[in-house]
Amino acid sequence: ISSAWEWFLAAMITSALINKGERGYDSNGVQMILLTTKVPLRDNGGNIIGLVGTSIDITESKRAEDALKESEEWFRNLFQKSHDGILYLSTDGKIITVNKAFAEMHGYSIEEIIKMNIGDLDSIETKLLYNERLARIKKGENLIFEVTHFHKDGHIIPMEVTAGMITIGSANYILASH
């Protein structure tokens, strides 16, 4: 069944407005992506006598959407597959999200650790330097420093950290790699 017949049959069966993405071609033969809306055309007696439709060229917005999805996939894979422990913190130290490597190196599940504050993991020595480091990060510095964290079983984990401020939407976060 041709695309036009599929539309017509769908309109006859549902008697409703139908929106559908379609591929089309411009006058130069270049493929386009169209958002097409079709609705049954009725006579005065309510009988379907045809189909009326409009199309909007959404090629560029679809390409932008696909590029964004690909970019998100790249960064999601980087975050999830990295052997470095990566976490996002709110500026008050609440752990927003971590990758699997960060959770595992601390002996927690991701679900457990995202209920915590970074201070829950920091040794006393690391806690003493937290405010000074946070102030520098908030000023825009990217820092490399050493910390000691507690593993879930209580043993100390020495780590090197790279941290900096990022903005997502209108909120600021600390991105740190361990």
Descriptive overview:
The protein has a 5-stranded antiparallel β-sheet with strand order 5-4-8-7-6, with helices on one face. It has about 180 residues and is an alpha+beta fold. The longest helix has 23 residues, at about 60-80. It has 5 helices and 8 strands.
The total of beta strands comes to: 8
Order of helices and strands: HEEEHEEHHHEEE
Helix/strand class: alpha+beta
What is the C-alpha radius of gyration, as a whole number of Å? 27 Å
Tally of helical segments: 5
| Percentage of residues in helical conformation | 25-40%
What tags apply to this protein structure?
8 strands, three-stranded antiparallel β-sheet
Question: What is shown here, in short?
Answer:
With 178 residues, this protein is of the alpha+beta class. The protein has helices at 3-14, 59-81, 100-106, 110-113, 124-138, and strands at residues 18-25, 31-42, 48-57, 86-90, 95-98, 143-150, 156-168, 171-177.
Sequence-ordered SSE layout with sheet pairings:
Layout: H1 3-14, E1 18-25, E2 31-42, E3 48-57, H2 59-81, E4 86-90, E5 95-98, H3 100-106, H4 110-113, H5 124-138, E6 143-150, E7 156-168, E8 171-177
Antiparallel strand pairs: 1-2, 2-3, 4-5, 4-8, 6-7, 7-8
